[in-house]
Design brief:
alpha+beta; RNA Polymerase Alpha Subunit, Chain A, domain 2; 2 domains
C-alpha cells in the first residue's frame, strides 16, 4: 500500500510537477477576472449623522478611519474614497455616552465590494445639550470723523439677538459684534447695514436674519465762541 502511494507521488514526479504548473497557469489565464478577489485599504472620513436636534457635537473624531475592502480584481481599482462612505448614526446618542462602536454595516460602498475590516473598532465623541441666550450687539465702529464733528449717539436695530451653542461654551457675557462700520467719510448722520459676527464660529443665530442696522447720529462740536454765547445766555436767564 505504501509502495503504491509512493509511486503515485514520486514516479515521473518531474512530469507531474510540470502538469501541475501548467494547470495553474491555465487556471489563472482562463478564469474570469471577476472570479479573482483582491483587497485594498482606504482611509476615509467618518461622517456623523442624525445628531439629535437638542444636542451639539463638541468633540469630533477628526482622524480618518481605515476600511479594508474585498472585491473582484477587475473592479477593485474603481473603488476609491469618493465612493465609500462611513456614516455614524447618532440618533439614539446621549450626552453621557462618549464611545461609539464602528462596524462593517456603517460602511456604504459599491454592490460588488464587501467590507472586511474597519479600524479602529470604536471612536470617542462628546455631545452636549444646546443652550440659548440673548446677547447684546456691539457695533464695530472704525475710522475718525472730520474735525469739528462728533458722534452724538450710536443705535443698533435690533439691539440684541438670540444665539445658540453648546452649553459649556456659550456665556451670557458674550457679545455679538458687527462687521466694521467706517465713519471717516461721514459729514452727517447716517444709517448702515452690517453683518453679525458671532463670538464663536460654532455658535449660530436663532433666526435667519444675519444683518442689523447701525444708526450713527452726528453733531457739530461746540466751538469756543459757541460756549461763550451759551454762558452769556445762561447768565441773562439767571438775572431775569
Amino acid at each position: 500500500m505504501r509502495r503504491i502511494i509512493r509511486n503515485i507521488f514520486l514516479k515521473n514526479w518531474g512530469l507531474k510537477l510540470f502538469s501541475l504548473i501548467l494547470a495553474l497557469i491555465l487556471w489563472l489565464t482562463l478564469i474570469p477576472e471577476e472570479k479573482i478577489l483582491s483587497e485594498k485599504t482606504l482611509a476615509i472620513a467618518l461622517e456623523p449623522h442624525n445628531i439629535p436636534a437638542e444636542m451639539e457635537l463638541v468633540e469630533k473624531h477628526t482622524e480618518p478611519i481605515e476600511v479594508t475592502i474585498r472585491a473582484p480584481k477587475g473592479f477593485i481599482n474603481k473603488i476609491t474614497k469618493d465612493n465609500v462612505v462611513a456614516k455614524l448614526n447618532l440618533e439614539n446618542a446621549t450626552t453621557e455616552q462618549t464611545e461609539f462602536p464602528l462596524t462593517n454595516a456603517m460602511i456604504s460602498l459599491p454592490s460588488k465590494a464587501k467590507v472586511i475590516r474597519v479600524k479602529p473598532n470604536k471612536v470617542r465623541l462628546t455631545l452636549e445639550k444646546i443652550k440659548e441666550v440673548m446677547l447684546d450687539i456691539e457695533p464695530n465702529i472704525i475710522g475718525k470723523l472730520k474735525e469739528g464733528l462728533k458722534i452724538a449717539k450710536i443705535e443698533v436695530f435690533p439691539p440684541r439677538v438670540i444665539v445658540k451653542g453648546a452649553e459649556s461654551k456659550i456665556k451670557e457675557k458674550d457679545k455679538v459684534r458687527t462687521s466694521p462700520v467706517d465713519i471717516s467719510s461721514l459729514t452727517q448722520s447716517a444709517e448702515f447695514e452690517a453683518d453679525l459676527i458671532l463670538p464663536n464660529p460654532d455658535f449660530r443665530l436663532d433666526s435667519s436674519k444675519t444683518k442689523v442696522k447701525v444708526k450713527i447720529t452726528i453733531q457739530k462740536e461746540e466751538t469756543k465762541e459757541d460756549k461763550d454765547i451759551k454762558k452769556k445766555q445762561n447768565g441773562k436767564t439767571l438775572r431775569n
